[in-house]
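Dear V.,

Thank you for sending over the compound details. I've combined the ligand you provided, adenosine-5'-triphosphate, with the protein sequence from our construct and run the structure prediction for the complex. I'm sharing the raw inputs here so there's no ambiguity about protonation or stereochemistry in the SMILES, which I know was a concern on your side last time.
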Amino acid sequence: MSQFAVIGAGRFGESVARTLSEKGSDVILIDTDEEKIRDLDDVVTHALQLDATDEKAIKAAGIEDVDAAVVSVGRDMEASVLITMLLKEMGVRYVVAKATSEAHYKILTRLGADRIVFPERETGVKVANSLINPTIFDYLEVAPGYNIIEIKPPREIVGKSLEEAKVRSTYGVDIIAIKSLHPVLDGAGESDLEEEVKIVPAADEIIREGDTIIVIGAEKDLERLRG
Amino acid sequence: MSQFAVIGAGRFGESVARTLSEKGSDVILIDTDEEKIRDLDDVVTHALQLDATDEKAIKAAGIEDVDAAVVSVGRDMEASVLITMLLKEMGVRYVVAKATSEAHYKILTRLGADRIVFPERETGVKVANSLINPTIFDYLEVAPGYNIIEIKPPREIVGKSLEEAKVRSTYGVDIIAIKSLHPVLDGAGESDLEEEVKIVPAADEIIREGDTIIVIGAEKDLERLRG
Ligand SMILES: Nc1ncnc2c1ncn2[C@@H]1O[C@H](COP(=O)(O)OP(=O)(O)OP(=O)(O)O)[C@@H](O)[C@H]1O
Ligand SMILES: Nc1ncnc2c1ncn2[C@@H]1O[C@H](COP(=O)(O)OP(=O)(O)OP(=O)(O)O)[C@@H](O)[C@H]1O
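Below is the predicted structure of the protein with adenosine-5'-triphosphate bound, written out as C-alpha cells.
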C-alpha cells in the first residue's frame, strides 16, 4: 500500500491529496492552517496541523517512511526551499516540489528535489500549443523517451491500409490517428479545406495522399521517420 | 497567420504569451500593470496597458478579430468573469479562461467560456497519478474525448498476439503498451516482482496472464472495456 505525504494544502496540494486518496493511497497531509486540516480530515488518512519547517514535528509524523512527499507550501519560498532540503536530508526517497517562479524553480533544482512542477508555466505552455494545434494531441511526452507527433507518412505506405502498412514491424511506431483535409464550400461559397481526424482508425483504413499521421514511438524511431 | 489575445500577464498568461510568440503567432497582450507591459513589450506583437473590463478600450485594441483569447487575470474573480462575458458577447470565436477556484470554474462554465483551465487542480491530478503509476503515461486526455488508460485485458485476448487479438476492430481501441510483472530475487534473496513495460509492442507480442495493457481510445469505448 503506497504512502505519501503532502505538505501544504493549497489548491495544488489539495488536488494531489484528494486524487491520491481517491485512488486508495495512504496520505499524510500537513498544513499550519487549522481550517484546511479540518476540511480535509475525512478525505486523507491523517491530516496534521504542523509547521513543516519543524524537523522534529514532521519526523514524529512519520515523514521519513513515505514513498514520496509533495512540497506545495506555495508562496512562502523560504519555507518551500527549507522543507525540500530537510526532506532530502532525512532520506525521503522521492520529493516533488512546486515552484512559484523561475528563480524558485532554479533553487529547488539545486537543492535536489527529484521533480519540480510549475503548474502555471506548464499549463500555459500546454494551452498555447493546443491553440496553435487545436484538433488534437498535446504532442506530449507520454513516457520517458516516447512521444506523440504528427508527420507526413513515408511514401511507401501512402495508398495502403493500416493493416497492409505494417507500421509497427517496419518502423517501430504505432499510428493512433490519421488527419485528412477535405475541400468544402464555406458559407460564402468559397472553396475551403476542412480537417478531419480519425482517432484509432480501423485496420482497413487507407492512408491517402495529403494525409498526415499521428504516431507514438520512441524518440529515435520518430527521428528516423521524420527523415 | 494566427492571432491571439492574452489578457492578464500573470505567470500563466505570460507563459501562454511567450509560447505563442516563440511559435511565430501574433500576440496582443493586455494588462493594467505598466511594468509587466514593459517587460513583455519585445516578446509579443503588441503589449498594451489597458483595463480589459473597459469594452471600448479592448475593442480599439482589435480584440474582436483574434482567433482566440485567453483570460488570465487571476485572483480578481470579478474582472475575470466580466471580461470573459464581454469577449463572448463581442463575438470572439474562442475564449479560454483560467479559473482560480471551484466556484470560479463553475461560473466561467455558465458564462460560456469555450475552455476553462485550472492549472493548480489539473497539475495536482497529473502529479498524483504519476506518483501512483511512476513507470509510464500520465493517463492524460490526449484529445477531447480520448484517453490513455491502463486496464486488465479482456479474457478472450489473453494468450493471443496483438495481431490475433484484433483489438482495433473488436473494441475500437489501440494497445500502445503491455505491462508485465516478472518474479525476481532481490538483493536480500527475497522473492520480488519487477515491472516491465513494452511500449509499441511488436504485432506478434503475446498478451500473457497477469499482464495489463495500456490503451488509447474514445471514452465510451474505454468505459465498455473497463467493464
Ligand atoms: N511552514 C509551513 N508548514 C506547513 N504548511 C504551510 C507552511 N507554510 C505554508 N503552509 C501552507 O501551505 C499552503 C499553500 O500555501 P499558499 O496558499 O501560499 O500557496 P499557493 O502556491 O498559493 O498554493 P496553490 O497555488 O496550490 O493554491 C497553505 O495552506 C499554507 O497554510
Ligand atoms: N481588469 C484587468 N485588466 C487587465 N489586466 C488585469 C486586470 N486585472 C488584473 N489584471 C492583470 O492580470 C494579471 C494576473 O493577475 P494575478 O496575478 O492576480 O493572477 P494569478 O492568478 O495569480 O496569476 P498566475 O497564477 O497566472 O500567476 C496581473 O498582471 C494583473 O495586473
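A first observation: Chain B touches chain A through 64 residues (CB under 8 Å).

Warm regards,
I. M.
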